[in-house]
Design brief:
Elements: E1 6-8, E2 14-18, H1 22-46, H2 61-89, H3 104-117, H4 132-156, H5 172-175, H6 179-211, H7 215-221, E3 223-227, H8 228-231
Antiparallel strand pairs: 1-2, 2-3
């Protein structure tokens, strides 16, 4: 491990380790903020709750909201695709193997971590990157992300002109058995993402307090604190 990756902390039993590369941190926050905008605007599109006096054409509230939704969707889609690409080219902590428990030890770690978060196990497992439970959750939520993007593209093809390049995504409509089913799946996926976000924040805060590895701070700085034994330094 390079000397640039590890910085010695004041506690000689702990090392400061660079875990999350810039693309991981950047896409995480782009996803976070775009999901907030997409959820708010998407809910309004489905259930308009702003009323204005006079003709709608003079205010264009729905049109403005739809434009904001579209641009946020572009940011979200590009961010998700970059993060998926980084699962194959990033460092060990960003890889797909960190998300899906392919190895037997990761599968065993999944249950130990689940017991800890459900308060059936006192000691938390120390993980440099994602623990097995969190990794599996991220793998699931990225599948939901892709479903959101696909259903969103299917719905968007209705609004574009026949000559628009987005018409190439027309094939998605029959895959979802029509626009109504695509809209329903899109809506359900939004709620799944929001529920996951709440659970994710809870797990991160619990890990930060219980493990004292700067889990919460690491998605900003990229660094976590790990025991020298875990890092492999004597």
């Amino acid at each position: 491990m390079s000397s640039m990756a590890i910085a010695r902390s004041k506690n000689t039993d702990v090392e400061r380790l660079y875990i999350w590369e810039l693309p991981v941190r950047l896409t995480h926050w782009l996803n976070f903020f775009s999901i907030i905008v997409l959820s708010a605007t998407g809910y309004y599109i489905g259930h308009p709750f702003i009323s204005v006096a006079g003709l709608a054409r003079d205010h264009f509230v729905m049109g403005t909201v739809r434009v904001i939704h579209m641009y946020a969707a572009i940011v979200f889609t590009l961010s998700v695709l970059v993060r998926i690409y980084w699962m194959f080219v990033g460092n060990d902590y960003a890889r797909l193997t960190q998300l899906i428990p392919f190895r037997r030890e990761r599968f065993r770690s999944f249950w130990k971590t689940a017991m800890f978060y459900s308060f059936m196990r006192r000691e938390a497992e120390e993980n440099a990157g994602h623990d097995a439970l969190a990794g599996s959750g991220y793998a699931m939520i990225f599948g939901v992300y892709l479903l959101l993007i696909a259903t969103g593209l299917a719905l968007y093809t209705v609004d574009v002109s026949p000559s628009s390049p987005f018409q190439v995504f027309n094939f998605l409509i029959p895959l979802f058995e029509g626009l109504q089913m695509a809209r329903l799946i899109h809506h359900i996926c939004m709620w799944i993402v929001l529920i996951f976000a709440v659970i994710h924040i809870y797990f991160v805060l619990l890990a930060s307090v219980a493990e004292r590895t700067a889990t919460f701070d690491s998605i900003v700085s990229g660094y976590k604190f790990l025991s020298r034994r875990k890092v492999g330094i004597s």
